[in-house]
Amino acid sequence: MLALDTDVLVHWAMEGAAHHRATRRLVEREIRGPEGRLALTPQLLFEFVHVVTDPRRFESPLTVPGATALVRDLWDSREVIRVLPGPSVVHRTLELLTKLRLGRKRILDTALAATLEAAGISRLATLNGPDFEIFPFIEVVSPV
Fold first, then answer.
1. pLDDT exceeds cutoff 90 at 117
2. Predicted TM-score (pTM) above 0.90
3. Which domains, ranges and CATH numbers included, belong to the chain?
4. What sections of 33-128 are H helices per DSSP?
5. Which residues touch 50 (CB under 8 Å, ≥6 apart)?
6. With 90 as the cut, is the pLDDT of residue 53 above it?
7. Quick one: 5 exposed, middle or buried, by C-beta within 10 A (0-12, 13-18, 19+)?
8. Hey, which residues does 124 pair with through a beta bridge?
9. CA angle in degrees (0–180, nearest 5) for 104-71-90
């Protein structure tokens, strides 16, 4: 099973994004594969809404109602495994931040990695590979 990072989901959804076609191909290939499922977490969906509705990032951003409707459709899709952070994720995130000597700008990535680890998901599609390669339990999958 493949989890998606926010950046991959953004490029998948935003037609003018630099890696739109590549992320579309990756997602299609993954859902047609033997497992046919993608893993999404609530925190990345909330970050997705924040990013795709920002007029400073996109010439034609999504509206908040449009972005939230898309997120609802994704979350309810039969191809999506909903990965919820459990109670152990807070302690594991803090442990990883300390052990790997990561700063405040790495908190969200570290929390995502800890959430995936707790759920037994080891593959993550991201355009920010170096940010996740530090986690020994994450296999980075690049769409490009």
1. yes
2. yes
3. 2-85+121-141 (3.40.50)
4. 42-52, 64-76, 88-99, 107-119
5. none
6. yes
7. buried
8. 3, 140
9. 35
